[in-house]
Amino acid sequence: MSLRNTVCGIAAAVSALFTGAALAASHDRLFAYGFDVPADAPANANEAARFLTQATFGPTPADIARVTALGYDAWIEEQLGKTPTFGTPFVEQVVNARTAASQSVGQRQRINRWYWQAAYAPDQLRQRMAWALSQIFVISDQNSAISGYVVPMTGYYDMLAADAFGSYRTLLGDVTWHPMMARYLSSFRNQKPGATTSPDENYAREVMQLFSIGLVLRAMDFSPILDNGVEIPTYDQTTITHTAKVFTGFTWSDAPTNPPNFYGGGLTFAAQNAPMSCFGTELFPATGTGSNNMRHDITGDDGTTATSKTVVGGVTIPPNQTCAQDVGDMLDILAAHPNVPPFISRQLIQRFVTSNPTPAYIGRVAQVMDAPGANLGDVVKAILLDPEARIPPSLAGGDSYGKLREPILRLTAMWRAFNAQPQAPDTYGEIQMTAGSTQTSAFGQGPLESPTVFNFYQPDYQEPGPFADNDRYSPELQIVSESSVYSAANAYYNFSARAYLGMTSPPADRPLVDLSALTANANNPAAMVATIDSKLLYGTMSPNMRATLTSMVSNLSGASAGEKAWSLLYLTLMSPEFATQR
To answer: Domain range spanning residue 251?
Structure first.
């Protein structure tokens, strides 16, 4: 099999792994609520590695040993208690150092730090949860309103990490009040209603559609609630119009006490990263271009009369309230909505375990999220310990079970499996991770780099063909194309063939992979392939793939040990079996 044919066939082969004659029937084997939970301790290293593939940015030998020693539940509890790893202090230091030296500053500084945390941070479950949340509560440096805010965008991601195991209501509030979200979705300096102006409706729409309740009413298992066979919308345009008035009057945190900052001058990183202030009845500064109609929609502002706000579910937020009261009421209403548990639970299951969770799986996790006092830490534990996550894939849903592993997760899994060594910090304190590129164009995704608020791929995406024909979802396949398969292959080449310990003139802008576990058996192709199976496929390699790889290495009889090793690693990175998480 030629390398070119292997690359060209990836998208089709991945699709084939999830489809077939049994696809539709197999998914109907749902679990009863009383299904016995599998044993807490993994039976072997392969089971531990499969669990860690779901819960981290990739298994390491140390993590496998830890899970085996503690069991799943205790490992999760240990992770829930780990101190968060944040990027803001490091990115701010790098930005300040580069600025002082008249060096350019850009999103690459933020992204280098993100990749370092994904590969090396000890709080792996928190980091993986923050990555999942960043694909629901989306902001993006592709938007010019925030593309220049390198440090506060890092702070936004740190906020997701800080809230990763807390209450959903706290997370929703912190997202709403963060200036990067407000600038991204236009609630920053949003105007109250006036004679010729109306509030921007962007955030009002997306906080409902994407961050909380979705478009139609749902049961706890995510099935739509019907009225005479017709789906029931969660809100209408009138609801959006009224909700938009809630999200008015926001500005920088220090603007009320530091008037120049209302107009964006002299902002500190702390002010850019702190929860916003909101002008109510107080006047804006007398100088500059500020306008009183930018204040929050509240009775008495500028001689106008605000109306009450009728929001989701027909609930009325009364007039004469402060900005904080209005926003607090609105977020309380959304967080308490019965759609939130199934809507959020389903997306998190898709990010961690499988693209097509059964209604029973969604229902079990949603019940946990809906329980009094529950938090997102409880939710992620329920996702990872659920029978559908822990029992063998053949029992969990047949051909429709699992997900396409995100391109970034393939890279980080390889780094962690083969003990990739980070470079030393450069003159400015920055650790280079990305081979001189953000990798977004290669992978079709990047941290806080989505092309739209709808993420890189949508939870309801169905690849045309067997997926759509069988009503199955395949979110990650939305960024797979002939072009992206080639570009990702080129990126993986840069991180394997061009980045390993012991090579001549190693690059200084990416981690160097330790291939010693492979080179130690350079004269034993079968042993090399067994190592790849253990480290990257966790004992699931098919006989056909094993035979193909063994033959490839055998045919490299004149190659060096290093060339055999990186060739084997590189081909595995591009293989459909590694691309598929089951």
So the answer is: 166-212+235-336
